[in-house]
């Protein structure tokens, strides 16, 4: 396998951790930025062409979108961890069988989740206290996004496998392609076909389908180690158990985190559609500026997974130090962008005449940006714990985040209004780190002991 690595993959078990992590993370960051860029374009086009009500409707689905789609993304990320372990260990047969069983599990999860959430979309939106003025917009958008869940699994599983073997550039190229296509389809579906917010959702699903299909085609053509026979495709309970042992905790961690976001969104919905529109615009900017931290986490999961597979536990803490340097440097730059250009960023989604909404959006963005360093560490440390094979612990970090957001939503927003909502996400990031750092060193010691035996 070592020879194959030089062709289309990257061995992260040797060399400078800083150089390896940065080299791996940059394409992932660019890919995530493109993904967020076309998500932002959805909102910009909706806000500018369909108005504030439509923008608020789409934005009000953000937390439930995070709850369901985040679970799917987390499961696929977890499925990639055993693949990274097998790659680092040089076990080609085990790698192929894990990939095959991950595909079977993804088909099952996609079928069940898609059926369940599309049937109950309306009830979910009612439970979230979605304002009547924007309910139709919210339903039309999110039910189509949920119907596209199989494509979410297709892209995230194939991209996760490719990255697990050290190739972070290829998913970037396909995301660039789908991002451009998404913008064109947004304009075509909304302006030409007059599909409204449903057009934005259709454009997103089609674009993700194409990027997933491209990843699948590339993976089948370019990776000789993934040439499978009938034996490899057999369903194997042991492999499925290990995959679920990594995938389900990571998916549940995101979903548990998202429960707090759902509670917070319900509280924000209660403040009226104007505040919903402001938070929608702010969240789009925050997701865009925060995605390099998420991408750095992807890099650390692969880096840690490969080194665990290779038995090089001493490189794990060196990787943490390198990632901390990268993450903190970026957090400072992102804060500077918010301070200098926060108002202009809000105006990408909103009309300048909507002064109250613009001011609220800028305050929400700035409060989040002040805590980007804790956010960076949440992404880095949690991903490293998952890469070490202790995915179940990530559930507890999600619980800490959920409690913090739910407390703000249930208790502080009714008392202090919009200002309290601005500090909900920072409170969640700080709370998660309280758990994650002790958990990281606990996991590292466990691995060191197992290697010494």
Question: How would you sum up this structure, described in words?
Answer:
With 453 residues, this protein is an all-alpha fold. The protein has one domain. The chain contains 18 helices and no strands. It has helices at 2-8, 17-50, 52-59, 62-89, 92-119, 121-127, 132-147, 149-164, 169-192, 197-222, 237-269, 273-309, 314-346, 355-369, 372-387, 391-416, 418-422, 424-452. Helix 3 (52-59) runs parallel beside helix 12 and helix 13 runs antiparallel to helix 15. The two termini are 27 Å apart.
Descriptors for this entry?
single chain, 453 residues, globular, mainly alpha
Output the helix-strand order. HHHHHHHHHHHHHHHHHH
What is the CA–CA distance across the termini?
27 Å
Q: What form results from the Cα inertia axes?
A: globular
Percent of residues in beta strands? under 5%
Total count of domains: 1
The biggest beta sheet is recorded as: none
Q: What structural class should be given to the helix and strand makeup?
A: mainly alpha
Rg is 21 Å
Count of separate DSSP helical elements:
18
Give the % helix: over 70%
The low-confidence runs, each spanning 5 or more residues with pLDDT under 50, are: 1-7
Whole-number average pLDDT?
Answer: 86
Number of strands: 0
List the helices and strands and how they pair.
Blueprint lengths: L1 H7 L8 H34 L1 H8 L2 H28 L2 H28 L1 H7 L4 H16 L1 H16 L4 H24 L4 H26 L14 H33 L3 H37 L4 H33 L8 H15 L2 H16 L3 H26 L1 H5 L1 H29 L1
Helix pairs in contact: 2-3, 2-9, 2-10, 2-12, 2-13, 3-7, 3-12, 4-5, 4-8, 4-11, 4-12, 5-7, 5-8, 5-11, 6-7, 7-10, 8-10, 9-10, 11-16, 12-13, 12-14, 12-15, 13-14, 13-15, 15-16, 15-18, 16-18
């Amino acid at each position: 396998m070592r020879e194959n690595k030089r062709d289309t993959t990257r061995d992260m078990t040797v060399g400078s951790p800083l150089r390896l992590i940065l080299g791996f993370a940059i394409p992932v960051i660019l890919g995530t930025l493109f993904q967020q860029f076309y998500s932002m374009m959805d909102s910009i086009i909706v806000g500018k062409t369909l108005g504030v009500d439509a923008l608020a409707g789409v934005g009000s689905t953000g937390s439930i979108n995070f709850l369901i789609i985040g679970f799917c993304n987390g499961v696929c990320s977890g499925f990639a961890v055993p693949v990274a372990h097998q790659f680092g260990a040089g076990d080609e047969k085990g790698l192929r069988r894990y990939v095959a069983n991950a595909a079977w599990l993804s088909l099952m999860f996609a079928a069940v989740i898609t059926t369940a959430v599309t049937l109950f979309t309306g009830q979910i939106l009612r439970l979230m206290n979605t304002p009547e003025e924007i309910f139709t917009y919210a339903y039309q958008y999110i039910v189509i996004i949920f119907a596209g869940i199989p494509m979410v699994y297709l892209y995230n599983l194939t991209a996760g496998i490719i990255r697990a073997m050290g190739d972070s550039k290829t998913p970037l190229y396909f995301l660039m392609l789908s991002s451009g296509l998404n913008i064109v389809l947004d304009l075509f579906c909304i302006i030409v076909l007059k599909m409204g917010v449903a057009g934005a959702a259709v454009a997103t699903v089609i674009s993700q389908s194409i990027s997933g299909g491209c990843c699948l085609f590339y993976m089948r053509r370019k990776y000789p180690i993934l040439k499978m026979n009938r034996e490899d495709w057999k369903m194997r309970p042991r492999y499925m158990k290990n995959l679920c042992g990594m995938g389900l905790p990571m998916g549940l961690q995101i979903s548990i985190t998202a429960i707090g976001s759902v509670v917070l969104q319900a509280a924000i919905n209660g403040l009226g559609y104007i505040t919903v529109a402001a938070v929608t615009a702010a969240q789009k900017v925050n997701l865009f500026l925060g995605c390099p931290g998420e991408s750095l986490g992807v890099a650390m999961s692969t880096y840690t997974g490969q080194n665990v597979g290779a038995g090089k536990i001493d490189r794990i803490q060196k990787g943490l130090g390198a990632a901390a340097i990268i993450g903190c440097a970026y957090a400072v730059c992102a804060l500077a962008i918010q301070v200098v250009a926060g108002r202009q960023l809000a105006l990408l989604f909103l009309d300048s005449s909507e002064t109250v909404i613009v001011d609220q959006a800028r305050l929400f963005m700035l409060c989040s940006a002040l805590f980007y360093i804790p956010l960076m560490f949440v992404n880095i440390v949690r991903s490293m714990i998952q890469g070490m094979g202790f995915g179940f612990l990530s559930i507890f970090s999600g619980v800490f985040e959920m409690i913090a957001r739910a407390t703000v939503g249930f208790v502080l927003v009714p008392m202090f209004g919009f200002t309290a909502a601005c500090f909900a996400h920072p409170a969640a990031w700080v709370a998660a780190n309280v758990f994650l750092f002790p958990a990281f060193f606990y996991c590292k010691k466990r691995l060191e002991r197992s290697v010494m035996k």
